[in-house]
Each structure stands twice: as structure tokens, then as C-alpha cells.
Design goal:
This protein has 293 residues and is mainly α. 76% of the residues lie in helices and 8% in strands. Among the domains are: 117 residues; 80 residues, Fusion Protein Consisting Of Minor Coat Protein, Glycine Rich Linker, Tola, And A His Tag, Chain: A, Domain 2. The protein is rod-shaped.
Amino acid sequence: MPDLLREYWKYFLGALLLHALVAALFTMTFGTMMRRSAPQQLAIQATVVDQSAMRAARERDRQAEAQRRAQEEQRRAQEEAAKQAQEAEAKREADEQAARDQKAEEEKQATLKRQQVEAERQRQADIQKQQQQAAEQQARAVAERKQREDADKKRVAEIQQRQRDEAMKRQAADDARQRADREMELKRQLAEEEGRNAAANSGLLSQYLAMIEQRVERNWNRPPSARAGLECEVKVAQAPGGTVLSVQMGRCNGDAAVMQSIEAAVYRSSPLPPPPDPRLFERNVTIIFKPAE
């Protein structure tokens, strides 16, 4: 209210002055009417109107017109004051409405800003939560992958160790089998060697070589150049069963024709006779071709 008085004090002061003027005019008019009432009675009673009465009547008319004009001015002033007061009230209400609207807009903007801040905070919280969930999921995936890799490494290590153990066992078994085979082969060779030596010592080897020499001599065609006292060393390679594979002449006191005839006799003697004892068979044998005279 003090703000309203400070802003519209001119209008209020004019309204007060107008009311004071109206009150003064009303007082004057009421007094005049009281004064006119007596002369009117006199005028009714009088029969003659003098000049002073006419002047008084004109003065009364003039005052009545002045009073009417004053009343009209008072009415206009009142209407103007009422209009100004109404305009002032309308402006006040408009200002108050504008202030209320501004306050409501400010509150709306503040609420909107709070909502935006809250929405942004919630969005950031959601993003942080999603990032945290993604990080946790990635950490779980890394842990699971590492666990699988560790399990795979452990399984591979176990398989490799089992393979190494099995390989060592197989190697040990192979080594043992090979040792056993070697021992058996050695024993067999020793036994064969002993048997061969026994057969050789018994004269069977000499008998075997003599059988070959006799077979070759029977198949030999003596050339004219052969002389008495012929003696040649002949190396024969044979297959199992006595088939002659190759013949090589060693030292010999005969000529080329004699050596060729001896080589041909060996091939004609194929297959060579078997030994009396199978243990005496050898792929490579050396005989001394010394025909009888």
C-alpha cells in the first residue's frame, strides 16, 4: 500500500481536492437555496417586482448555473478520479499479475532447471552404472577367459606330462625289448658261433668246402693251357639254397683262359651243395680250386 501511495499520490491528492471542492460548492448551494426560499415566499406574496428583485433573480440563476457547472466539473473530476483510480488499480493489478506471472515463470524455469539437473544427474548416474556394469562384465569375461586358459594350460600340461610319461614308459619298454632282443640275438649268435665252431672243429666245414670244390671240378672244362700243379683261390657269393650270385678270382697260377674256365665251372655248379650242418652256411665262401692231375 505505501508503494501504491508513492506511485499514485498525485491522483489521490487530486481526488481529495475535488471532494473538498464539491463539499464547498454543496455548502454554498445549500446556503443560497435557504436564502432564496424566503424571497420566493415574498415574491408569491408581493404583487410588484422591483428592479432589485430581478437582479437577485439573475444572480440566483447565475449562481445556479455556476453551481450546475461546479457540480458538472465535480462529476467530471470524480469520473476522471475514478477513471484514474480504476486505471491505477488496473495497472496495479496488471503489475501484480505480471509480477505473479514473472514469479510463476521463474518458478517454472527453476523447476525445469531442477528437473534438467536431476535428469542430467540421473543420466550421468545411469551412464556410470552402465560403465560399471560393463567394466564388471568385462572383468568377469577376462577372469573367465583366464580361468579357461589356465584350465586349458593345466589340461595341456597334464596331457603333455602323460604323453611324456607314456613315451618314457614306451621308450623304457622299447629299450628293455631291444636289450632283450640284443641279448637274445647275441645269445643266438653265440650259440650259432659255438655250434658253427663245434661243427667246424668236427671237420664238417672242411667237408662242406670239399663238396663245393668237387662240384666245381666236375663241371670244369680243362683248357689246353692248364698245366700241372694248378691252384687258384676262388671267392663265391651265394644265396640261401646255394644259388651262385657272383664269382671273383683271387690268386691263381693259371692264365686268363684257365681262370675264365674255373669261373664258368662255378656258375655251372649252381646251386652249390648244402652244408652238412645248416649252421655252416655262409653267403661268402672261399674255395681252393686244385684239380687232380
